[in-house]
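Sample entry was shown:

___
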Amino acid sequence: QVQLVESGGGLVQAGGSLRLSCAASGSIFSINAMAWYRQAPGNQREQVAAISSGGSTNYADSVKGRFTIYRDNAKNTVYLQMNSLKPEDTAVYYCNADIRRYSVGYYYINNYWGQGTQVTVSS
C-alpha cells in the first residue's frame, strides 16, 4: 500500500519562508510526476507547482519567482520551498504523485494524494 506523508506546514508572517516535504512509502516501483496543490476555503483546488521524473518544472503564475519544487529520488520525496510568503498563500497544501507499482504480474500507475498540511500566512 502506497502512502504520501506530508510535513512542514505552519504559521508564518508575511515575507517569511516555509519548506514543505512529502515522502512516498510502500510498494513503489518508480515515481513519475509529482506536484503540489493548494485549496483555500470556498475555492477550487489549484496546482501550484509540478516536477517530472526528469526534473522539468512548472509553476502557477502566482508563485513564480517565490516557490521552488524539487525532489530527492533516493528518498522518494518531493519538496516545496516557499519564500516571500503572502497572506493570499494561506491554504491547505496537498502533495500528489503518479506512482508505478507491480501487482499480479502487471506494472501499473496510480495517482495518490497526501493528507494535506495547513499553511497560514499572517500580515
About this structure: The CA atoms of residues 14 and 86 lie 5 Å apart. The chain is about 0% helix and 60% strand. The radius of gyration is 15 Å. The chain has a mean pLDDT of 95.
